[in-house]
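Hi,

I'm pasting everything inline rather than attaching a file, because the server keeps stripping attachments. The sequence lines come first, and each chain or strand is labelled.
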Amino acid sequence: MANKEKDVKLLGFWASPFSRRVEMALKLKGVSYEYLEQDIVDKSALLLELNPVFKKVPVLVHNGKILAESHLILEYIDQTWKSNPILPQDPYEKAMARFWAKFVDEQVGPVCFKSVVKAEKGIEIAIEEAQELITFLEKELTGKDFFGGKTIGFLDLVAGSMIPFCLARSWEGMEIDMIPEEKFPELNRWIRNLNDIEVVSECIPHREKQIEHMMKVVERIKLA
Amino acid sequence: MASDEVKVIGAWASPFVMRPRIALNLKSVSYEFLQETFGSKSELLLKSNPVHKKIPVLIHADKPVCESNIIVEYVDETWSTSGPSMLPSNPYDRAIARFWAAYIDEKWFPSLKSILQAEGEEEKKAVLAQVEEGTALLEKAFIDCSKGKPFFNGEHVGYLDIAFGCFLGWLRVTELAAGHKVLDEAKTPSLSKWAEQFCNDPAVKPVMPDTATLAEFAKKIFAKPAA
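And the predicted assembly:
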């Protein structure tokens, strides 16, 4: 049964990992949607109307129902379109996926980006603290092609949109070798695996543009 | 073979710890409560939650689950045949319940906490205004979610009731300290009624600390020098 494009709309921002992961999920499920690119600095009336609480992307609109917050949107997509499940069935595995996804966005994101930019205790310590967190994820990947096992799942979408295609671009721009192969073999293998997945490679921002964008964010953080 | 035993590592005063305890009570699951000493972290806690080193931690058949709202969903899904569901079955309504729980943790509770830490009347007034704005949003959310029933989850206490209700003790302590009511019949009539019903629920009553005891505890912890 074909999904009418107009039934699903996504308000997003090209450089946002939060918005990209929703696109990956929709593509994975074969859901067609209308994409509405947003200016996250000069926010549109539509964005403010649809997400007055957080005023952020992504926002998904499905048959008039409005959803915000990327993790919730991913779970909603998983429950609404049943092909290619994103979350595991087992309650414990599900809890683990949710736990690590929260960890990626709330800890890894800030510590491996903003804290590194600010390097309040010096760059070496900032990198060390960032790598400490990333090591948890390295351990989770041991013996697996993806966090989701043989196929990509919830945590792959969250961590995949965040780490290789967003944070890693900022490390590249700042000339920091954050995840060298010898220290993070599992993570590097996972990134190579992700690049082979069409749904992922179709939904990642253009590499140079993303580096340029992240470096502008770095400047803003430094000036703040 | 790992036993099916359930343990919760926590502390009596923590609203986050209340969440899994209420959930387990709703599902009539007995558990061992392992109280942490304030100011120190046990070996078991550090081993079970090496990432955050925080309470609550649920240990089920020797497997730890961390993060209070994630634990509540785990309890709901694991003991799904026992007691009513804590989240709506409709995916959209589930997403809405989770949305408000996220809002409460990311915006509402941090602003409530900062009232107690505010220096000077001006700052206190500004933060109070923020909390009231948030509470007004939650009043509306309650009306939308409850659809005329006593709880956010409908007939029975559920995920969002727990996510918000766990803060009622601290809310009362803050109101006393600030000399200003945030939740009351005039400003938030639906939430006021809900709060009373929530606190009287048999799954909640045994784990909700009384305001006076909590106020004493608050004096102690806020008197400590900043870490």
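The first helix of chain B runs from residue 15 to 26.

If the labels don't parse on your end, tell me and I'll reformat.
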